[in-house]
Fold this sequence. Notes:
Elements: H1 11-16, E1 19-24, E2 27-33, H2 47-62, E3 74-83, E4 91-101, E5 105-114, E6 119-129
Antiparallel strand pairs: 1-2, 2-4, 3-6, 4-5, 5-6
Amino acid sequence: xxxxxxxxxxxxxxxxxxxxxxxxxxxxxxxxxxxxxxxxxxxxxxxxxxxxxxxxxxxxxxxxxxxxxxxxxxxxxxxxxxxxxxxxxxxxxxxxxxxxxxxxxxxxxxxxxxxxxxxxxxxxxxxxxxxx
Length: 132
């Protein structure tokens, strides 16, 4: 990925500790180290972490412009997450692809795997481009 196109961490991203690992036309990959503060009351990774990574990756997948001077933002209209597995891994990776859309709305799909390739969650989303 072109370093000039990488956005710096925004506050929520900095708090959780994930990074935008790859970003290009119609695709994004987000990586998250697993840490104790991400656990739920059962000691497992909180499902909201999966949802956050998927939402982020899918949003980025639809917002690539290729031009660091022309930033595109989007708002999530709908997010459906399906949880398939549990991991005791040390790292999560969410990959997403833009699957369609038009001038104002786009659709995306994504999956979260652990470092061993175990599928943990999948999602689909509907996003609206923001003006300006």
